[in-house]
């Protein structure tokens, strides 16, 4: 049995715990401005949260945009969701939390009838996503001063 569980973050407490992980990873560690880390999509996205068994402490989070919210991120591709804001706390890295979060978001995409998932990967994380079946496409671009590539996985 793993030392964590991943669940959909439906309660306000779960969402706040996920936002705290994002703040720790993106704002504090990576220097992403807080005013661009959180956006209007947070209100309608599917959020997932990884928590430690026993004490329930938050270890990681991610979100899925779908429908009209995903269109801007996926180039308007029909039936494609957008996975994003995947963050794992420094202490939880290497435990399989990131893989479990991605798979939970893919399950959420399938449950909503999506055929594929896109994401915008920081270039240092390309290998992680490639191991999970994602393929890069397009040109490298900057987001919050960090190099990224678009990636897609057919579900």
UniProtKB/TrEMBL annotation:
Pfam families named in the record: Acetyltransf_10
GO molecular function, one term: acyltransferase activity
Gene3D superfamilies cross-referenced by the UniProt entry: 3.40.630.30
InterPro entries: Acyl_CoA_acyltransferase, Bact_Acetyltransf, GNAT_dom
Protein keywords: Acyltransferase, Transferase
Major enzyme class: transferase
Domain N-acetyltransferase: 4-155
Superkingdom per UniProt: Bacteria
SUPFAM superfamilies in alphabetical order: Acyl-CoA N-acyltransferases (Nat)
Name this polypeptide is given: GNAT family N-acetyltransferase
Organism in which the protein naturally occurs: Streptomyces lavendulocolor
């Amino acid at each position: 049995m793993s030392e964590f569980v991943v669940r959909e973050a439906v309660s306000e407490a779960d969402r706040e715990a996920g936002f705290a992980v994002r703040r720790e990873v993106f704002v504090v560690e990576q220097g992403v401005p807080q005013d661009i880390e959180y956006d209007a999509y947070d209100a309608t996205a599917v959020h997932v949260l990884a928590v430690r068994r026993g004490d329930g402490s938050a270890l990681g989070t991610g979100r899925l945009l779908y429908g009209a919210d995903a269109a801007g991120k996926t180039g308007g591709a029909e039936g494609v969701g957008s996975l994003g804001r995947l963050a794992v706390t420094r202490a939880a890295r290497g435990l399989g939390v990131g893989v479990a979060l991605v798979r939970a978001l893919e399950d959420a995409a399938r449950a909503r009838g999506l055929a594929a998932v896109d994401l915008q990967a920081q270039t240092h994380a390309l290998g992680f996503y490639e191991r999970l079946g994602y393929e890069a496409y397009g040109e490298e671009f900057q987001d919050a001063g960090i190099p990224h590539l678009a990636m897609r996985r057919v579900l």
